[in-house]
Write a structure and sequence with these properties.
alpha+beta, 12% strand
């Protein structure tokens, strides 16, 4: 399992989202940005194996596999849709409702993700999340 995060100007770590087993992660920045470091950090929060492709390998796939572009577009569309669904509750709901939405959308993650990362993802402190979890159980 992977965690995608970044830092605020104040140096606080923000969890943007989680990548579960058999999901893809793709840096879709413009080609001229592809050689510079990403503004996001990728952290393994469980033991994992990754398959990593260089930009040159990626271009070779596009040349050698006729449907490569279509496949990549489908992956990007699906990932974008899933991201939109997961972000909406974070923008519109109170803390308890955000946690409930997270449990509904990702029931298997609640006990696999460290509490600090989950609190960061949900936009609350770890102590607030602990109180919410205590009342829900």
């Amino acid at each position: 399992m992977l965690r995608i995060c970044s830092y605020t100007e104040q140096g606080e770590e923000l969890t943007k989202y989680f990548i579960e087993e058999r999901q893809s992660i793709l840096d879709i920045r413009r080609p001229e940005c592809a050689t510079s470091p990403s503004p996001c950090l990728v952290q393994a929060i469980t033991d994992c194996q990754l398959i990593v492709f260089t930009l040159q390998q990626w271009h070779a796939f596009a040349q050698d596999i006729p449907e490569w572009g279509t496949l990549v577009q489908k992956i990007i569309a699906q990932t974008t849709w899933e991201k939109l669904l997961s972000v909406q509750p974070l923008l519109t709901q109170n803390a308890a409702a955000r946690y409930q939405s997270f449990l509904t959308m990702h029931p298997q993650l609640a006990n696999r993700v460290p509490l600090a990362y989950l609190a960061s993802y949900l936009g609350m402190t770890q102590s607030s999340l602990s109180r919410i979890r205590k009342h829900i159980r």
